[in-house]
Design a protein that fits this description.
heterodimer, A: about 425 residues, mainly alpha, 20 helices, 2 strands, about 70% helix, flat, B: about 375 residues, alpha+beta, Rossmann fold, OB fold (Dihydrolipoamide Acetyltransferase, E2P), 6-stranded mixed β-sheet, 5-stranded mixed barrel, globular
Chain lengths: ~425, ~375
């Protein structure tokens, strides 16, 4: 407390004794609000200090990686790493015809220097890979040219380079080079949305065979919605049963619900392979009973069906638990009251019981949907080619093609999609109404 | 038990040899026979686990009777589902639907009966006015206090004009003052509407305040079915004597029986006269039951019983003084002395003489 406040406090306390001052003061004459703030400050600090480890953990494990991912999706320095002088010079080119002799000279110098240095991450191949994303075939061109550039001892470089390979005389290649040597680029987002630049630098839809990401996003949303709905259909009766059974029985059943959490996800998914495959348990039983013939075994796995079945199984507990926790709090007297007032069992359920389970349904569907939309292992194992989700494509770019920027762009789009859905959900249901149990 | 039962021909609600078991091993309700007349207010009173709530649930239709028949009017309702029984019900936790407003709660029973909107609104308003809650029609249950919720629950149970209303410890969650006020209100509503009420409680003062008749339950059996006054003045057995009101107990053996009175020898050898209630033979063990306010200190010579005792404790309670006395080996013997303002000389440790009229002392089964 500062001196100045003390002065006013003393003044006000003398006034307060005459019951003139409207502000409440303590018996010491300090304004009540101020005193309250002082006494609660320590408590608030202590509460805050206790959360510091978690805050730090979240910053390093959550905020920083996501920030990095967002950054990487628009930031790619392959151009400036490999050919810094060329990258700066070509930006001044107006894109008409071919660049000037000066630009060609810098290109030859930078590539030669890079080729000689052999520094990891800064080889001509790195630039070639980056250009190749937008101009197929240029990786081999740049790599082979880099080896040949040492023959070019002096200018004019432009003619010498064009003489090395006639592909260098294509203006589109140079325009692409100009575009990809900028550090900041939106092109990975365009790629993630199945778009490309045509020869005149216009954004157009990618060729049909490269149309993979948008349709996969839709498929991911659709499968997640189906999985969520199936989980709801299966979980609701189970949760209802659990909440109405005597405690001893319901605890036993609850262990069965939680049992999958105690087994490895891989084991569970692999078990589905054993069950669903064409020579698996279900098909064998169907053939044995005679419902299907041996030649017409049902394809239950390595497609969307497999993804749906396995993921519903794995995500089911996340629907059951919030539903159960909400249903547990609904006393049977509500249904009884409704029945006593003349409602049939169905009406009583529809009008009285079901509306009260909405917080649980909302929480369960949100949980399952968001888990499903980013699920990776299960679709990778049982999804085959048709049943893979967007997360599998992201993983492919991170682990195999090493196009991290594209992976990051896809990941960012997924993140934004989830956040938009969450926002919509909040508008429709209200997050404050959720009950996760 | 049969003494207090309404004639079966006049009965509106009739339990006939009803038995109930949940596990097939224990009968929670044993051979229940109970007739309730139209317009009567009958309370099922008893400790928890005595079977009273089970009886109510069987009447409402939420629990099937294991054996026996339950009738409403002339109809056996054993196989009628709850929603077709037309019984209003008030629950202990009120069971107001939290996702509906007060108005929607009240119109729910009318809506499922397909009453038209105008009539329904009128009925809801009437019911709310009856419990003085007309201004709360748009509120949510969570915005109301316990007492207000209780009124709404009552209004909701009555809004569709059922002829029979069941109440399952409806005042259990209220504080004492509110509970007493609601007791009078429920009583008056019952008197005004003329509905038949079956009320379950474990609170004897609640039962005594409101009921025409009280069925005292214990161990799955109605111990006594009678008016409040009868239960207190003429308990039929030791359980009722203990359960209703305050009660002094003295153990003894029947010495002599002479018509309605008997002579009992107490543990310390003193002999007292008592009214014979349910002891049959000389030599039987008996439990004498005596209300504390019927005990006289320094009784006149002509009193039926005279015992010597020692004052153990005095508790001043304003309108009366509780005197704990050691009498005939029982040091929990209580006498209530009315505070007449005459400053009687009572001191702890003092030896005194106490007595009572033989008609106030009941010789019950031990």
């Amino acid at each position: 407390m500062t001196d100045s406040t003390n002065v006013t406090d003393n003044g006000s306390s003398s006034l307060a004794s005459k019951a003139v001052d409207e502000r409440l003061v303590t018996s010491d004459g300090v304004p009540l609000k101020q005193k309250l703030a002082i006494t609660t400050r320590r408590l608030r600090w202590r509460a805050f200090v206790l959360t510091i480890p978690l805050v730090l953990f979240l910053i390093f494990s959550f905020v920083v990686p996501i920030g990095q991912m967002l950054f990487r999706s628009v930031h790619n320095t392959a151009g400036t790493d490999v050919a810094p002088n060329f990258a700066a010079a070509i930006q001044k080119w107006d894109g008409e015809g071919l660049p000037s002799e000066e630009v060609f000279a810098l290109f030859a110098e930078d590539i030669q220097a890079s080729h000689k240095r052999r520094e990891i991450g800064k080889t001509p191949g790195k630039l070639g890979t980056r250009v190749n994303y937008e101009f197929p075939g240029s990786l081999s061109l740049i790599k082979s040219s880099a080896r040949k550039f040492k023959k070019i001892k002096e200018g004019p470089y432009k003619e010498a380079i064009l003489a090395l390979d006639k592909r260098w005389s294509n203006p589109v290649l140079w325009r692409t080079l100009k575009r990809v040597t900028r550090d900041y680029t939106p092109s990975f987002y365009f790629a993630a949305l199945d778009m490309k630049y045509d020869a005149d630098e216009n954004l157009v839809a990618a060729d049909d065979i490269y149309q993979i990401y948008v349709s996969n996003f839709w498929k991911t949303l659709r499968l997640s919605a189906i999985i969520t709905f199936l989980c709801f259909l299966l979980a609701f009766p189970v949760a209802y049963l659990l909440s109405t059974l005597p405690l001893a029985t319901s605890n036993l059943l609850m262990i069965l619900v939680l049992l999958p959490f105690w087994t490895s996800l891989l084991v569970r998914t692999t078990a589905w392979i054993a069950i669903l495959q064409s020579k698996g348990i279900i098909n064998n039983i169907l053939v044995f009973i005679g419902i299907i013939s041996d030649e017409n075994r049902v394809q239950l796995i390595y497609n969307q069906t497999g993804t749906i079945i396995a993921m519903v199984h794995i995500l089911l507990p996340f629907m059951i638990l919030p539903l159960y926790s909400v249903m547990k709090t609904i006393p049977p007297s509500y249904m009884r009251a409704a029945r006593s007032m003349g409602a049939t069992p169905f009406t009583a359920f529809r009008r009285v019981y079901f509306p009260q389970t909405l917080p649980g349904i909302a929480a369960g569907t949100l949980l399952v949907f968001i888990l499903a939309i980013g699920y990776y292992i299960t679709p990778a194992l049982v999804g085959g080619a048709d049943g893979v989700l967007i997360s599998n494509l992201i993983a492919n770019h991170i682990q195999k093609t090493l196009n991290w920027s594209l992976g990051a762009a896809l990941g960012t789009i997924l993140l934004v999609t989830v956040m938009v859905l969450y926002w919509l959900y909040n508008k429709l249901v209200g997050i404050d109404k959720l009950s996760f149990g | 038990m049969a003494s207090g039962n309404t004639n079966a021909d006049d009965a509106y609600v009739r339990f006939e040899k009803v038995q109930k078991s949940y596990d097939g091993e224990i009968l929670v309700v044993k051979d229940l026979n109970l007739n309730i007349a139209k317009g009567e207010f009958v309370t099922m009173l008893g400790p928890s686990g005595s079977g009273k709530t089970t009886c109510l649930m069987m009447l409402a239709g939420f629990e099937p009777a294991t054996n026996g028949e339950i009738y409403i009017g002339d109809r056996s309702i054993n196989h009628i589902p709850p929603h077709k029984r037309g019984i209003g019900m008030v629950f202990q936790n009120y069971a107001l639907f939290p996702h509906m407003s007060i108005g929607e709660n009240l119109s729910f029973p009318l809506e499922v009966r397909k009453m038209n909107k105008a009539d329904s609104e009128k009925a809801v308003k009437r019911a709310l006015d009856m419990v003085q809650m007309g201004d709360f029609i748009n509120r949510r249950p969570a915005q109301l206090s316990g007492g207000q919720q209780q009124r709404i629950a009552l209004a909701r149970a009555l809004v569709f004009e059922p002829e029979l209303v069941l109440m399952d410890e409806p005042l259990g969650a209220l504080d004492k003052q509110l509970r007493e006020r609601m007791q009078y209100e429920i009583k008056h509503i019952h008197e005004n509407l003329g509905v038949t009420v079956v009320y379950v409680t474990h609170d004897q003062s609640e039962a005594l305040t409101m009921s025409d008749r009280i069925a005292v339950f214990n161990d799955g059996v109605i111990q006594q079915l009678s008016s409040a006054e009868n239960l207190y003045e003429q308990p039929q057995n030791a359980f009722v004597a203990q359960f209703i009101g305050e009660n002094n107990e003295l153990n003894g053996v029947v010495e002599k029986i002479k018509r309605n009175t008997c002579t009992v020898r107490l543990a310390d050898g003193t002999k007292v006269k008592a009214e014979k209630v349910n002891v049959d033979n000389v030599g039987d063990k008996t439990l004498l039951s005596l209300r504390p306010e019927r005990v006289e200190i320094d009784p006149p010579e002509k009193m039926d019983a005279h015992l010597d005792g020692k004052i153990e404790e005095l508790i001043y309670l304003g309108d009366h003084i509780r005197v704990r006395i050691n009498v005939a080996g029982n040091d929990e013997f209580i006498a209530k002395v009315r505070n007449r303002g005459d400053k009687r000389e009572l001191n702890e440790g003092q030896s005194i003489n106490i007595g009572w009229a033989a008609t106030d002392c009941k010789a019950l089964d031990a």
